[in-house]
Write a structure and sequence with these properties.
Aminopeptidase i, Domain 2; about 475 residues; 9-stranded mixed sheet; single chain; 22 strands; 6-stranded antiparallel sheet; about 25% strand
Length: about 475
């Protein structure tokens, strides 16, 4: 027989918060749906290692779902679905709602760039009969994590003749991989005396790409010459073409299930494609919203959102202004009445490193999508800090839609911190709050998330759009 609950137990249920593991709440069929949803997400992660590849994926999916390129001169009606691409590295999708744009729009913004290694403008050199590439790391990384793992090369080169060459080498089983070498422990005594952050220095992130010399002659740099010959024979590349290239080194492995229960996903680039993919799918499935829904997959967040493809630029503002003109409005008429979910990740509590988290305000794997009222660092610098009113709306929205959610901060006060695109959208006078998925090993080459949390993110973005 079930024991009767005490008065204290009943009062706790009524008054106290009690976040639970989603697997203890969801029915088996819902868990199965979450696992199936994540199969598509894993394919996306394995296929889209860069912001350009994620944009191309989103465009192809949008076209298949009936979205058409946006024209500022065309008049749109409820249910119309459009998209626009910014320089091949960011994309905006919109589904027009039944209400007038004067009532604002609903924005979901996530980023599709991730920490990586970029090639320097003059990268190729030879040393001790080995050919290598010089890199400059992009975003916040622990540099030592990028040594002795297989890497692939992605990006675009504009050749001297003006031709655009798309590059992807190292993803297929038949293709060569690249690597950053590290010292063996037997010879690493001096290296071991360095601080962890200096264990591998930025100028030591050099990519090994060849070791066989050009054999038809004698002289110096013959290994480098042989590599250039191979590149020229296959792609028509000359060394000068590296000057007009965006080439990125990323982990060469794909997404995998983690754990005996297969409850988690390990992959490169969860931050922030774990929010970008669910928001994209929610946008593709959005048919007839009350309010116009705008989904943004943006670039450059990991370096501060600066540049013309980051949200510190004006491309989103200009898009909204183009929409406003169709209704005889100003952009600010729409923006000041708009709401935004800044879809970005938070750091999951790691029991191996508990000291950096404040448990009551940390986020956890399997406890649903994370609502982060503010990010920033120290005295909340670099954050928008969502209002109580908007937090109340989001809280009610998720509760009413049956979304499993939690709140979280990015570590203890003064322990560190971080930023998102929220502040730049808030600067447009938009109500905004950060929501996203909790991530273990964030900014490493192999991050970990919960499948149930990914699915809750998708459901949350669908509920917001509806």
């Amino acid at each position: 027989m079930c024991e009767e609950k005490s008065a204290a137990d009943l009062l706790k249920e009524k008054l106290c918060m009690n976040p639970q593991n989603a697997a203890q709440i969801l029915q088996d069929d819902e868990i199965e749906k979450a696992d199936m949803f994540c199969e598509g997400y894993k394919k996306f992660l394995s296929q889209c290692k860069t912001e350009r590849e994620a944009t191309a994926f989103a465009e192809a999916a949008a076209k298949k779902a009936g979205f058409v390129p946006f024209s500022s001169s065309k008049k749109y009606k409820a249910g119309d679905r459009i998209y626009t691409i910014n320089r091949g590295k960011a994309i905006i999708l919109a589904v027009f709602g039944k209400r007038n744009l004067r009532e604002g729009v609903k924005i979901v913004a996530s980023h599709i760039d991730a920490p990586r290694l970029d090639l320097k403008p003059v990268p190729l050199y030879e040393d001790s009969d080995l050919a290598l590439l010089k890199t400059h790391y992009y975003g916040g990384i622990k540099k030592y994590q990028w040594t002795a793992i297989p890497l692939s090369l992605h990006g675009v080169m504009i050749l001297k003749n003006g031709k655009s060459l798309q590059v992807s080498i190292g993803e297929k089983e038949s293709e060569p991989k690249f690597v950053i070498t590290d010292l063996l422990p037997h010879l690493g005594a001096e290296q071991a005396k360095r601080t962890l952050s200096q264990g591998i220095k930025g100028e030591e992130l050099n990519i090994l790409i060849g070791s066989r010399p050009f054999r038809s002659d004698k002289g110096s740099d013959l290994v480098k010459l042989n590599v250039l010959k191979l590149l020229n024979d296959k792609y028509g590349i000359i060394e000068e073409d590296f000057l007009s290239a965006e080439l990125e080194l990323v982990p060469a492995f794909g997404a995998s299930d983690i754990g005996f229960d297969r409850s988690m996903i390990g992959a490169y680039g969860h931050d922030d494609r774990v929010c970008a993919y669910p928001s994209l799918i929610a946008a593709l499935e959005c048919k007839a919203p009350e309010v116009t829904v705008v989904t943004v997959l943006t670039d450059k967040e990991e370096t501060g959102s600066d540049g013309n493809t980051g949200l510190n630029s004006s491309y989103l503002k200009y898009f909204i202004e183009d929409l406003a003109k169709q209704e005889g409005l100003e952009g600010r008429d729409i923006l000041s009445r708009s709401q935004c979910l800044s879809a970005d990740v938070n750091a999951a509590f790691d029991p191996t490193f508990p000291s950096v988290h404040e448990k009551m305000n940390a986020s956890y794997l399997n406890k649903g999508i994370v609502v982060t009222k503010y990010t920033g660092s120290r005295g909340k610098s670099g954050t928008s800090d969502a209002s109580a009113e908007f937090m109340g709306k989001v809280r009610k929205l998720f509760d009413d839609a049956g979304i499993i959610w939690q709140v979280g901060e990015l570590g203890k006060v003064d322990e560190g911190g971080g930023g998102t695109v929220a502040q730049y959208i808030a600067n447009l006078n938009v109500d905004v709050v950060d929501v996203g998925v909790a991530v273990l090993s964030m900014h490493s080459p192999y991050e970990v998330v919960s499948k149930l949390d990914v699915y809750m993110a998708y459901k949350a973005f669908c509920a917001f759009a509806e």
